[in-house]
Amino acid sequence: MSENPEDLARLMESVALRRDVAAFEVLFRHFGPKVKTYMLRQTRNPQLAEELMQETMMAVWNKASLFDAGRGNPSAWIFTIARNLFISAYRKQNRPEFDPNDPAFVPETIEPAEVVLQGLQEAESLRAALNELPDEQRELVSRSFFADVPHSALAAEYGLPLGTVKSRIRMALAKLRKSMEGGR
Amino acid sequence: MNIRHHVSDTLLAAYATGDLAEGWSLAVATHLSLCPECRKRLAKFEAVAADMMEALPAEADVSGSWDAMKARLAGSDAGVALPPEKTVSKPVASPVLPEPLRSYVGGDAKALKWKPLGRGAYQVQIPTRDEETTVRLLRIPAGRPVPEHSHGGRELTLVLAGSFSDEQGRFARGDLEEADEDLQHQPVAGSEEDCICLAVTDAPLRFSSRFLRIVQPILGI
Ligand SMILES: [Zn+2]
To answer: B60–A103: do the CB atoms touch at under 8 Å?
Structure first.
């Protein structure tokens, strides 16, 4: 079965509204291996990676109703769950997050639907921009994105001074940002 | 609110991917609660990080995983339709300290046990589970300089009440200043009201002597 982002979002809805095990199985088979690979990269421990993958998917099942189907592909939402579980289980730290129900929270002023759409378009152009980066920059950015490769290790591997690695990553991010702004 | 000083791309990307220690994350998350603009940028970084996760080679072996998962689901609410989410009613008061910071310190600014730092300034130390950062809430009297605070590396300062100014400009509620060891700055609180800010710095040097380790927290050095 091939799953496009819309299908995945619909499956999430089915899990949320009807506690649909069959829909969840499709999600599990799609995201499980990716989440486990991510956890493997982070922990280098197959058993822990399997446990953290199971915990992530269990949380996806339990919190399915919190996923907003209007946001499209559930991958970003599932990634944040995986990331948070990794931080609390492996790094033994908390991950502080903002609380939209807090009275001090400053809400968005534009209509939410518009914002969501705009965000989606921008994420789309960010992805496009990422693919247009020179290979080395894209690799540096994508590898530094995942915590298992600190900038200092990348510097050693590429035979570059730490400052150069940092500035290349900064440059790549700035480029990404600029092309996003141009796409508006 | 008009926020002028935002979270940098590198810091926000590190927060998005979970590559940021708890202390720094607390400052970023508290800025995010006050800044819709940075929340939008965060969503983009998270989407890209998710893409990168999706693009990882499927080298992990998950045969047998689904059976284990299915067994766990059997004990849950599988097949039972969920009631609709309840909406939470908002309390009216508007705290000086937004979440997640308020829960970290255990109350709003007025309810805290402020410890004098000298020259009219006060602080509250905020414990975290990382060993990389020192996190404090500072209260600087209106018009006064921020007390001497040497830091070896990075420093994040988030203004929550009043303002301060230094060579980088003026920082008011929601503004975040990112400084490294190269920045020589002497911030001075604005004259309108006392300045309350969250200050995160690299953890102080750990002294090797047992005696110093004991007195270090008492002296607050
Ligand atoms: Zn901002």
So the answer is: no
Architecture per CATH, A5-93: Orthogonal Bundle (1.10)
Q: Helix axis angle, B22-34 relative to B9-17, nearest 10°?
A: 110
| Alpha carbon of B2 to ligand 1 centroid (Å) | 10
Identity of the residue in A35, A83, A122 whose CB atom sits nearest the CB atom of B44: A122
> Hunting for tokens 């931080």 — which residue is that?
A87
Per-residue model confidence as pLDDT tens digits over A88-144: 888 888 889 999 999 999 988 765 556 556 666 666 666 677 677 777 777 666 666
What range defines the domain where residue B209 resides?
A: 107-219
CB contact under 8 A, A104 and B13: no
3-class state of residue B181 by DSSP:
coil
Structural domain count of chain B: 1
- Domain-located, residue B190: yes
Name chain B contacts of A116, Cβ cutoff 8 Å. none
Q: Is A50's CB within 8 Å of B65's CB?
A: yes
Whole-prediction pTM value? 0.75
Q: How far is residue A23's CA from residue B80's CA, in Å, rounded to a whole number?
A: 14
Is residue B130 domain-resident? yes
